[in-house]
Amino acid sequence: MAEDKKFLKGTVYKSTGSWYMVQGADGEFWDARIKGKLKIDDEISSTNPIAVGDQVLFEIEDIAERTAIISTVCDRHNYMVRVSPHNKNQKHIIAANLDLVLLITTIAEPRTSQGFIDRFLITAEAYHIPAIIVFNKIDLLKTKHKEQLQHWTDIYTGAGYEVFPVIALQHDSLLALEDKLKGKTTLFSGHSGVGKSTLINRLMPELSLKTGEVSGRSGKGQHTTTFAEMFDLPGGGKIIDTPGVKEFGLIDMEREELSHYFPEMRALLGKCRFHNCLHINEPASKTFYAFIPHF
Question: pTM value?
């Protein structure tokens, strides 16, 4: 009679697409891979079956080499998702089991569009993940950019989001934000060049993550983070660093759903006189004015 296999439970700390770094309950790390058919409890279809932050069951393959085989992805509490950059008809899970998502943006060099911000926030709302907006590099802003920063700050704080204008190179400007991360698993996301790695280096100097300059010709950032990876914060909590995102496409959402994912609109939905209103072309009532999403 075959001996029963012993499965251990762990957390995925890094994903390269084919290999995963998994931390077991004892704190030890294993280089793990998938072998055969993977069991996923919630049966989510995506281009990546396993994401950083996932809880998995694995069995030891080689104790000396510290390799393991992942057999099961446990139920996810939540996850952050976007359109796959390789297949527009499929989803890509950015990270799983999150307490908070941090969208790092810049008004200029590189420019983050309001459409990008809105699509990110809509997805966080749809998957029930609290979101914070960070405006980095505020020391580099010209007068017109400062006015835009104030305008966007008014919009998003008015909708109920916390907004943190920071200078990632100055740790003192990060103290209030740092306090928000304690005890939480937080995803860091944004375009390349907005300062994700610089920000993490200030919060965790021992990491010395590689950072890159913004291209003078394109005004866009250069990729420095290659794979998603999770790090333990010294004061408690975890940070998930991710590669820069060029585009953030919505997936698995109907147009009629969108208004439910804008907090400022959700509070007024019961006052709208139309069923399944898109709030774009319909005549506005006195209590519910026409709304045009920034897409």
Answer: 0.81
